[in-house]
Design brief:
It is built from 18 helices and 13 strands. It is α/β, with parallel strands linked by helices. α3 crosses α17, α11 packs across α15 and α14 packs across α16. The two termini are 38 Å apart.
């Protein structure tokens, strides 16, 4: 992004709406519906992003991009002050009319910086509370308390704080300051494009179970492998496929050695990280995600709903929003490979349920989780979007 960075030395064109993102992928994929909805109302959109991976996708969306430094896991005070000052300087040059920050650091650093830079209209979004709100260690509890206070400050400075599930909203509203001064709005995840992920009839032979996600302990990857051993012992024809990879920067990620050992066992197939999962979804009978990670609403489950796949996932925050028990899938207790295997075996023993529950999944996607529905929920809270719509009429 050197060419973009160099443009800051001169007069930087302003944008109407600025996103502060934790990574380019989430912006290009998960925020795409909101970006397009804002643009449809005649607003220009820009973003601060810390990496280049999905730069071409953002350019195709007509999003002006500026790079900034972000260490997602670092907590050094001096380094974070430097990042705050960099964000402040960028926003002053860009001169947006409204700013939305999402993920922890873009919210707690970006929103105060935007207000200090003179931006009148700011918004916060949490896409899941993750490891920080799922772990019970003393160190994490202390950090969680601090982040909650910073969320409350950023939320109080903003017009609305968006949540993707009611459990996360309730978690932060336990804090008096947050409950008293922050407007909380719950939306249905990030939404899914039901045209981009069309319905298809799920194959039942061989029974194929698909996991999609990062290989983290809390995402249930260990539980999946143990459940797969039970399932394959009873039906060797069953296929269990896990798309994704580990993350060496996270302590709760699987190691390369563990992954190679699993590959050698041959119980679960590991194709690696896949940019476009649609062919795997089409070939899958059931989507499995035994996550207890404090998700927002996992995009993988929304894609499964839209494609018409039955789901087996945990009765945990975010995941439970996608399943009507026994209608389009099953909720199982977290960290229970035996319960997970039992529900996977249910589909092998009752193959007609694969298609029946898959049809119900598609109905749920169409009724609650379309990108238009979710973008509409968010734009209804945004003054800049409402004024732009009035100006178009």
């Amino acid at each position: 992004m050197n060419d973009v960075r160099s443009s800051l030395s001169g007069n930087t064109p302003g944008v109407d709406f600025l996103f502060i993102a934790a990574n380019s992928r989430s912006l290009a994929v998960n925020r795409k519906p909101v970006i397009q909805a804002l643009q449809k109302r005649g607003l220009t959109v820009g973003a601060l992003v810390p990496d280049e991976e999905f730069r071409e996708d953002l350019q195709s969306l007509n999003v002006t991009v500026w790079p900034y430094a972000l260490d997602r896991h670092g907590m050094g005070i001096v380094a974070e002050i430097r990042r705050f000052m960099e964000i402040l300087s960028l926003i002053r040059r860009i001169r947006p009319k409204a700013v939305l920050g999402y993920a922890i650091k873009p919210v707690v650093l970006g929103i105060p910086a935007a207000r200090l830079a003179g931006v009148r209209e700011t918004y916060c979004l949490t896409t899941g509370m993750g490891y920080l709100f799922g772990s019970a260690t003393t160190r994490v509890r202390v950090i969680r308390w601090g982040v909650t206070q910073l969320f409350a400050i950023a939320g109080a400075l903003s017009r609305a704080f968006f949540f993707q599930n009611p459990d996360d909203c309730a978690e932060l509203r336990r804090n008096f300051f947050f409950r008293r001064f922050v407007k909380s709005v719950v939306v249905n995840g990030s939404g899914v494009d039901i045209v981009e992920y069309p319905f298809s009839s799920a194959p039942a032979d061989p029974p194929t179970f698909l996991f999609m996600g990062r290989f983290l302990r809390e995402k249930g990857i260990y539980d999946l492998v143990e459940a797969a051993k039970i399932v394959r012992a009873k039906d060797p024809s069953a296929r269990i496929i896990a798309l994704g990879s580990g993350d060496a920067t996270l302590v709760n990620s699987i190691s390369d050695a563990e992954l190679e050992a699993w590959r050698a066992e041959g119980v679960v197939e590991f194709p690696g990280r896949v940019r476009d999962v649609r062919s795997y979804l089409t070939a899958a009978s059931v989507v499995v995600l035994p996550s207890y990670y404090r998700e927002g609403i996992p995009r993988t489950l929304l894609e499964a709903l839209s494609t018409g796949r039955a789901i087996v996932t945990c009765d945990s925050v975010g995941c439970r929003e996608t399943v009507e028990q026994g209608c389009n899938g099953w909720l199982v207790p977290p960290q229970s490979p035996e319960a997970l295997a039992d529900r996977m075996l249910y589909f092998i023993e009752n193959p007609e349920a694969i298609l029946d529950m898959g049809r119900r999944s598609r109905e749920i996607a169409e009724a609650r989780f379309t990108v238009g529905h979710v973008a509409g929920q968010m734009l209804a809270e945004m003054e800049i979007a409402q004024l732009a719509e009035i100006a178009r009429q």
